[in-house]
Input
Amino acid sequence: MEYVKSKIRDVQDFPKKGILFYDLTTAFKDPRALQTIGRDLADLYRGKGVTKVVGIESRGFIGGSILAFELGAGFVPARKPGKLPADTISCSFDKEYGKDVIELHRDAISPDDIVVIHDDVLATGGTMAAVYELVKSMNPKKIYINFIIELSALNGRAVMPTDAEVTSLLAY
Output
């Protein structure tokens, strides 16, 4: 993961002054870094019977799709309101920059599913906590939570559910 870390770009004052943004797009465009991320994500869940991976809009779609492919699982997008074409369920939540809403298709998860919810970065945890509540409301057998990067100083892990295993590939 040190190679991957070397490919992540630090962007000062984005999306607003005082924020240091860890830009994974520079790691995603590097073939070796992208393959390492995909392999290391999949290695966390091989043999656990994962049937669905929920990727959170938008960078969570990248790692989530790779993870689903590697595990032979289905992919489910968690999206902003109005982006999914069929009947949805939604959850509103607080983000570090204000309020937001996230949605899933109402029929995305079944009680037989074992689910990994994936996003690129754990900051304050609001988005993931909201998606977790949506997934949990569909009563799957098991839920795992995963990030590529965890920003430890923001203490997002504190809002993660205690009944789900939470993993990150890198911590800052």
